[in-house]
Amino acid sequence: MKISLASTMGFSQNLGSLRLPPTYLLPVLSTRRSGAQDHSGEQFVQSQGHAQAVFLLINPKSRKITRIPRPLAMSEENKIGLGNFGTVYKGRLWDGSIIAVKRATKNMYDGKLSAEFRSEIQTLSKVEHLNLVKFLGYLEYEDERLILVEYVSNGTLRQHLDGLRGQPLDFSERLNIAIDIVHAIAYLHGYTDHPIIHRDIKSSNILLTDHLRAKVADFGFARLAPENPEVTHVSTVVKGTAGYVDPEYLRTNQLTDRSDVYSFGVLLVELVTGRRPIERGRGRHQRLTTQWALRKWREGDTVVAMDTRMRRGSAVVAAVEKVMALAAECTAPDRAARPAMRRCAEVLWAVRRDFQQEQQHEAAAAAAAARAGARRLDGSTYALPSVTRLR
């Protein structure tokens, strides 16, 4: 039996004001009998020829160990979703904490799926960021393939935009979600040991916490970007989701970090409109959401493209105009004209700052108008008795 190991090494990275603390995770799988220990102190359980448990060594100094039994979360009632890799289940550790277990579809397990599995664990084991789903461990034995990640409780961004979860998102919430996403992708592109291209940025791969913080998930299609600045792209078979895939990548099979930028631009339009990138049930001119929405923006009719569930005050409309301008840059046909993700982050930070200031001005103006109205009302009430006496 093969022993599978993965670890995230301690490191710190800076992105804006965010500083990442060092953490240590070491999942271990073995067939040794229960209670046995190897020379490094990890503990194992008896497997009887099958993968029975994964152990997570949370802190190598205290040697704290959490055990995850194999039958964990494999029942239908614990199924919470489907992904490129297979089925996702909700599980509970023996210490009571909730996790998500991604399980490969067995009858589909082949070389392609194996490559996606290894790509995901290799990528997840190298990264750590507040806006990326946290990797806990993995299991690989015979035809069983599991990836264990943190459980993010509030569903996907797509579910929220479809009205399947929670209240309709207001503009400030959508803007904050966009900023969380841009932080995560900028980190992958420029703040890891080796730049990473996600290759499948889409609303159903964005998970939301109860506080509507966004976390990017599903790294099955991720690829390492070239480290050599003279190498401009990675030649690879096209992977991704229809509506989000960079047309230049689709045409040339040449993948760059600007392919993620294109997908992010589509996602910005999705946040503004609430629509999916491809709306097959709509008329011909509205079927491709990005083209339709950007056309409305260029015609000066952005309000028509906005999600009708969003309030449309002047501050919101002005901010949406700026977001759409960034989306147009991100989805430029020529990838050389697209901004880097770091630049996208700077633009969105500025949009949020200006939006918050404009909201404050609107609130102050509304309060002043309310006070003036109250004074006029007070004046009219004093006049009533004299009118009555005249009668």
Index terms:
single chain, 391 residues, alpha+beta, Phosphorylase Kinase, domain 1, Transferase(Phosphotransferase), domain 1, 2 domains, 5-stranded antiparallel beta sheet, 3-stranded antiparallel beta sheet, 9 helices, 37% helix, globular, disordered N terminus, kinase, serine/threonine-protein kinase, Kinase-like_dom_sf, EC 2.7.11.1, non-specific serine/threonine protein kinase
SSE arrangement:
Layout lengths: L13 E2 L2 E2 L6 E3 L24 E7 L4 E6 L9 E4 L3 E7 L5 E7 L6 H14 L10 E7 L2 E7 L6 H5 L9 H20 L5 E2 L8 E3 L5 E3 L6 E2 L9 E2 L11 H6 L1 E2 L1 H17 L15 H10 L3 H4 L8 H17 L10 H50 L1
Antiparallel strand pairs: 1-2, 3-4, 4-5, 6-7, 7-8, 8-10, 9-10, 11-14, 12-13, 15-16
Helix pairs in contact: 3-5, 3-9, 5-6, 5-8, 8-9
Molecular structure report:
The chain is an alpha+beta fold. It has 2 domains: 137 residues, Phosphorylase Kinase, domain 1 (2-Layer Sandwich), CATH 3.30.200; 199 residues, Transferase(Phosphotransferase) domain 1 (Transferase(Phosphotransferase), domain 1), CATH 1.10.510. It contains 9 helices and 16 strands. The strands form 6 sheets. It has a 5-stranded antiparallel beta sheet with strand order 6-7-8-10-9, covered by helices on one side. A 3-stranded antiparallel beta sheet has the order 3-4-5, with no helix packed on it. The N and C termini lie far apart (102 Å).
